[in-house]
Design brief:
Largest sheet: 6 strands, mixed
Number of strands: 22
Mean pLDDT: 95
Radius of gyration: 23 Å
Distance between the termini: 28 Å
Low-confidence stretches: none
Length: about 550
């Protein structure tokens, strides 16, 4: 994809989302799911997402999804409070109010931030887990987060977190989606809903101090004292997201030198520079979206950014700039394995199949077990919940890890702790994460990594998602022998919904997009850029040959 000429620059006023039009569409547009499949409820790796303007995220969708979740809770005898959070997207407030009206009408106790504030994804996970640690019987809790993550301002999203704190398993989300679509097909017959006055009178809406509950616990997962003692100067760009009101309490409680460089919240996200395709996208792993913070990189020892729901992180090192997400994952794993003395030696470190092979080499060099899973943080939930997996990370700049005592912290991605970990690493080692990554490159080799999109028909996408490893008959790739061809992840034998082919010094993975008529190819070479280009050429040819059969 060519880089847009305005990438990294602020959008002009005429390009900002029309908020009155967007909010009107949320209430006025009605999905016709029997005629338009794109308007159906569909849970991907991070919940149901869409836009009111395309009739894929509207009031009817949220009414149906909230009712389905209420019914699922009842079927599982979950009677504890549901922790409900929202981010700063325009559609999130409307969807939040819709969700509250349905849940309370179904007799669900709903805990929301005091004074109607925002609540990040990891904070909801943390609240669920700390509640359930003390709960007994049916008083178990679960949660919902209203967010489309880093998606553009006109988008909306909703995701369900189970009583284990993280993204619900596919069998749960499939059940919720099926029931929600049935309700939409029945013109919402069976949906219960309270008016605002009835919500207030119900006594089921319970204000909760999420901020202090989360902030007060951070010393159990991070070495906050080391950061304070070394006076690490931390710059923070909340990117207008849901964590904006957390940084001041963090700085005050732990005595940290934190400067929030942008305190604005605006649902147009007009202050976020345009991404590589020219759209506003609050992607803290993008050097284009992070231009505002990158201009200040030398004003701080460590600077960090997060997406609107704070499940992603962007790490900026003084004198260098924005770290590659894969590089930071590799450094975080090595540091944590060496400085969390209470973590068992045999505890696993998790990565997705499309994350860098540098992680494999680092984990092997540490003599630790690696668990490689398909894309989606839900695959880490069970291991982190029961304490058998110390760290779970995704190449898209999302990760979380256990408390110092090897018990669960969150089972969803936590942008706060990954951001603060960078400051801890600098405080404890005297070197920033980028410097430590360069040492890894000197030891394990330099990786060259890229991701591309290739046009594909729905039929081709379906074929790719159903491939068998036996469909790969060639024995070489880019001049090296093929050592593995996988359609199931080695860490848990779950289907990856595509194909990964590896050689000694390179690999590629291809998987269909869940939202576009393309398939994504991830590639990495430990030899050279030229070898990466050869991998790309032969990967496309290999996939084309398999799809042509």
């Amino acid at each position: 994809m060519a880089i847009h000429p305005q990438a990294g620059l602020l959008a002009s006023h005429d390009l900002l989302v029309n908020l009155p039009e967007l909010m009107s569409a949320y209430y006025l547009n009605k999905p016709t799911v029997t005629k338009n499949p794109d308007e159906r409820v569909s849970f991907g790796t991070s919940g149901h997402r869409g836009s009111a303007l395309s009739t894929s995220f509207n009031e009817h969708h949220i009414l149906a999804i909230a009712q389905a979740i209420a019914e699922y809770r009842k079927s599982q005898n979950i009677t504890g409070p549901l922790y409900l959070g929202k981010d700063t997207h325009a559609l999130s407030e409307a969807a939040f109010q819709t969700t509250v009206s349905v849940l309370t009408a179904n007799g669900v106790r709903v805990r929301t931030q005091l004074n109607g504030g925002y609540t990040p994804t990891p904070v909801i996970s943390h609240a669920i887990l700390t509640h359930n640690k003390q709960a007994s019987g049916s008083d178990m809790s679960d949660g919902i987060v209203i967010t489309p993550s880093h998606n553009p301002p006109e988008d909306g999203g909703i995701k369900y977190n189970s009583s284990k704190g993280g993204p619900a398993d596919k069998d749960i989300t499939d059940w919720v989606a099926k029931r929600a679509n049935a309700l939409l097909e029945a013109d919402l017959q069976g949906v219960k809903r309270f008016s605002p006055n009835e919500v207030e009178a119900s006594g089921l809406l319970e204000p909760f101090d999420f901020i202090n509950h989360y902030v007060d616990d951070l010393a159990n997962v991070l070495d906050m004292k080391a950061i304070a003692d070394k006076k690490i100067r931390i710059g923070v760009d909340p990117m207008g997201g849901s964590g904006i009101h957390y940084w001041e309490p963090i700085a005050k409680k732990y005595g940290l030198d934190i400067t929030v460089v942008n305190k604005e919240v605006d649902p147009t996200f007009r202050f976020v520079p345009r991404d590589k395709d020219g759209r506003i996208r609050m992607d803290c792993s993008s050097p284009y979206s992070m231009q505002g913070l990158l201009k200040l990189k030398d004003d701080f020892d460590i600077a960090v950014g997060n997406d609107p729901d704070y499940d992603r992180h962007g790490i900026v090192c003084s004198g260098f700039g924005l770290m590659n997400p894969n590089a930071y994952l590799a450094v975080a794993i090595e540091y944590l394995s060496q400085h969390r003395k209470q973590w068992p030696q045999k505890i696993q470190f998790g990565k997705t199949l499309v994350s860098s092979g540098m992680i494999d080499r680092v984990v092997d060099g540490l003599g630790r077990p690696l668990c490689e899973v398909p894309v989606g943080f839900k695959w880490y939930v069970e291991g982190m919940f029961n304490g058998t997996m110390a760290f779970g990370g995704e190449e898209s700049a999302g990760a979380s890890f256990l408390r110092k005592d090897a018990s669960v912290w969150t089972t969803d991605k936590d942008g706060f702790i990954m951001a603060l970990l960078a400051a801890e690493i600098l405080a404890v080692t005297g070197q920033d994460p980028q410097t430590l990554y360069e040492a890894q490159v000197a030891k394990y080799g330099k990786p060259f990594y890229k991701r591309i999109d290739v046009a594909a028909t729905p039929a081709q996408k379906a074929l790719l998602g159903a491939l068998d490893a036996k469909d790969v008959t060639q024995t070489e790739l880019a001049g090296e022998d093929i050592v593995s061809a996988l359609t199931h992840a080695p860490g848990n034998n779950a289907a990856i919904g595509g194909l990964k082919v590896s050689t000694k010094n390179g690999w590629f993975a291809a998987r269909p997009s869940g939202t576009e008529n393309v398939y994504k190819i991830y590639l990495e070479s430990f030899i050279s850029e030229e070898h990466l280009d050869e991998l790309e050429k032969e990967a496309k040819a290999l996939v084309d040959s398999v799809l042509a059969k």
